[in-house]
Amino acid sequence: MLHRSCLIALALVAAPALAAAQAPDAESTFNAGLNHLKEGRPAMAVEEFRKAVRQDGKNPYFQKGLGQAYMSVGKYDDAASAFRRALELNPYYVDVHNDLGTALMLLGKRAEGKNEFLTAFNDPTNPTPELSSRNLGNAYLEEKRYADAINWFRTSLGRNRGYADAYLGLAEGLLATGRQEEMVTQLEAGAKEAPGDPSLQLALGQAYFKVGRFTEARARLEEAVKKDPDGAAGRRAASVLKELPR
Length: 246
Description:
Blueprint: H1 24-38, H2 42-55, H3 60-72, H4 76-89, H5 96-106, H6 110-122, H7 129-142, H8 146-159, H9 164-176, H10 180-193, H11 198-210, H12 214-227, H13 232-241
């Protein structure tokens, strides 16, 4: 009911402020790769990032961009290599550990992947500890180690109360352990903290449906459709609405 891929959905690279000595051609090539990635042309993004790396092989941002483009086309070994190179070039580029951890998980190297997430989480300079702990929660959820998953999702929310993905993961862990009422309570808290997130509205509507609170379920599902009429959450909510008793 509340299934969401337990693998991190990778954030697009934020274009860095490049040093004045950076070659303009390399920067423009990098930006072209970003645009292709954002607009759903991953194969073209790979080519542009590879070109940028050839122009400047010592820029960690280019390596991260290349790694994310490789991830988008399913080349996880190549992605892991690019992320490792980014960390070699800049060991303080902490959030790359999240990217590398994701690539390793997709390669089936689960222990190594979780270690990368933990490395990111434990680094005091990590700008997004809620993401690293959410990643660990997802990893344990996949392994059906629900107590560990629930703890990590709670840790994620302790770092960012408005992080929708952590509420969704926590709800999935609670549901798997038969704690339906607590699941509803957590999703209600999430919908209050992040009222604009249609996935939370959908999940809460489904949770209400599951425990027989049909009027409340309808209201939440309609809200999800309103907020995301053409997206995945809105379409799923519209489908569930058809199943509600009149």
